[in-house]
Amino acid sequence: MTTLGLGGQASLQWTPDGIIPEQIILKAMDLGVTYFDTSNVYGPSQLNYGKAFRTRHLIPASAGYDEAGRRSMVLASKTMVRMPRVRTRM
């Protein structure tokens, strides 16, 4: 995993007009970045990763799947929703 990664919030959630988020992801891959971060609350961030991963054939079970390429990456995700498990004593 690379020391530097690509975060999915500011750089991919709030891109200015004319900037294509998938291109940012693809450029990071071209530069050797292997750590990527996203969340379901980062707007379309996860969808942007999906588009970029499809372009590079990094989606399992898709035609031309690049398993070695996908295994070389770490994709971290998280959620804003936290639901504690409730335990009852009897």
Structural write-up:
The chain is α+β, with helices and mostly antiparallel strands. The chain has four helices and two strands. Helix 2 crosses helix 3.
Labels describing this entry:
90 residues; 4 helices; 33% helix; two-stranded parallel sheet; alpha+beta; 2 strands
Query: Main beta sheet, described?
Result: 2 strands, parallel
Average of per-residue pLDDT values: 88
Q: Which sequence of SSEs, written as H and E, runs from N to C?
A: HHEHHE
Portion in strands: 5-15%
Which sequence of strands runs across the widest sheet? 1-2
3D shape: globular
Draw up the topology in text.
Layout: H1 10-13, H2 21-30, E1 35-39, H3 45-55, H4 67-71, E2 74-78
Parallel strand pairs: 1-2
Could you write a compact summary of the structure shown?
This protein has helices at 10-13, 21-30, 45-55, 67-71; strands at residues 35-39, 74-78.
